[in-house]
Amino acid sequence: MLPVVGCGLDAGDDELLEATEDAPGEAATIEVAPAAPPQATSRKAESAPTRQFLGPAFTEAPLWPHGGAGGTYTGHVTPPAVIYAVRVRSGSYVDAMGFAWYQPTRWDNLYQAGDAWGNTPLYGGSGGGDNGWWYCPAGKGVIGIRGNSGSYLDRVGVICGDVTNPDPYSPYNTYSPLWGAGGGGWFGEDRCGAGRLVDSFNVRSGTLIDNLQAICINAH
User: Fold this and answer.
1) DSSP category for residue 23
2) What are the CA-CA distances from residue 158 to residues 21, 107, 145 (Å)?
3) How far apart are CA 52 and CA 120, in angstroms?
4) What are phi and psi for residue 156, nearest 5 degrees?
5) In whole angstroms, what is the distance from residue 195 CA to residue 73 CA?
6) CATH superfamily of this structure's domain 51-218
7) What is the pLDDT of residue 53?
8) pTM of the predicted model, to two decimals?
């Protein structure tokens, strides 16, 4: 079981915190409009064979879970895929999150017409403000997260890196805004290792995002 670390409530917080933890067995999900995949690339892959999505399944491993043990657990919320966009509702906490993905068939992991793609529902509640979809730049996908956590996920942002040769320390990586507030403790930048991408997430949720855990896989 994940440890529960207390974090103070901000005055005037989202209208959702009527109790100190989410009701057990209730995982709220909200349907969201699709986030369209990146524009199909025109770069040729002349000698590159069509292959399975990303690296072998045995190379998949989760990063550290951030948050508490409340809410309901949903494992591997996307198929193994490049995560290219996130949608967040936030106020004093991270109220809800959704993820957009595609499954690359090119050797360089860029999106091309015909690749499977989709998006998850919003996990969590309907409080906070809707920040809309935030997209990684072209040719990049999520390689890590950063933020604050305590009993809940207080604040979160994603880190995007090159989908072909991801490098957690590249100066060309892109950072999303940080959504949420400053409660909890800063857990820093939790990134996949060299040559690895985030291919899914484990989520605990109820009226808020209780816990978020990125899952990494080899890019090839």
Assistant:
1) P
2) 25, 24, 4
3) 22
4) -150, 150
5) 28
6) Jacalin-like lectin domain (2.100.10.30)
7) 79
8) 0.84
